[in-house]
Model the fold of this input.
Amino acid sequence: MGRVKMGAVVSLDGFIARDDDTVGPLFDWFGNGDAEWRWSPRQDEPCRTTLASKYFVQSVYPNIGAVVIGRRLFDLTDGWGGVPPAGEHVFVVTHTPPAGWKHTDTAPFTFVTGGVAAAIEQAQELAGPDRIVDVAAGQIGGQALRLGLIEQIVLHVVPVVFGSGRPFFGGAGTGDPITLGNPSRIVQGDRVTHLLYDVA
Amino acid sequence: MGRVKMGAVVSLDGFIARDDDTVGPLFDWFGNGDAEWRWSPRQDEPCRTTLASKYFVQSVYPNIGAVVIGRRLFDLTDGWGGVPPAGEHVFVVTHTPPAGWKHTDTAPFTFVTGGVAAAIEQAQELAGPDRIVDVAAGQIGGQALRLGLIEQIVLHVVPVVFGSGRPFFGGAGTGDPITLGNPSRIVQGDRVTHLLYDVA
Done:
């Protein structure tokens, strides 16, 4: 089955967006360097980062098969107009599939009403054994981590403090502490520090 | 004036303690290595960490003059029995000084009712130009950061996820994002990653 990773760009105080869903300077590092690359061949404008950031992202995400997101991100992006931001298929965890989304019949998007575990299972089947399943951080990723479904956590930590916002581990809830391994990689870019953790 | 640093041991999701004020495995790295050192000459049992962690802490905190904490930490520790955990004086930010603390007349502790800025000012006067003022993270540290009073932020990040608890930047409140520099140092210990940021 595809390896399940949870990742996002995050402020130093742990937020993937501000309360109003803006991201402040979180994505500045996608445009402050000379090394060009794309998350997906469908991406028009390339990212331009430091070489260190490019190598980190490309080695951690060599081949994304499917993406699992929550309803909030779907609504915020309008499902990226029906084009997956990476991988070939997007699984959206939602209680109620959107009525009348104009790309419903044509886009490689599946709305999963059975919860995050069901969505990850479908994503793994689609990704197959050799490709990655990328689970968005936040409510969905936190729930998946608490359920033991995440194998690796990727944080792109930006040196900014928001004070409040939407937590990277938002869905982890309460309970016993979740133990991770020491970070297996730490890479410094410009306005971003990349951290890679295996879940113990 | 003494350099003002804000620091703490923190979970990967940004908490310096759990909701019940326990710290889970946050302090494990103080005892999992061979390199002995002490925060203060008054500390009975030394820390035993990796050499990397020892060097990091000793170089970032070469000489603490005074410590600024909030009332919660004071109450949780009963003011460490009147003995500062580091430095020679502790300034406690509180609305109401404790009645009947048995060390009030003898301990080098000052209860500051004028807020965090007043406490840091007094701490800097005591520390003088060559020593550090160490401000506890959490409510007090976050407030001081928002007020522009923190020069350097030190995070000892432990690879554990709590899900909820007491935030490292708890007092930062809402408002504009607070921009930091790229981390000037990143040091990996065992069960801890040390990050040092200068405030921009």
Summary: The mean pLDDT of chain B is 95. Chain B is about 20% helix and 35% strand. The first strand of chain B starts at residue 4 and ends at 11.
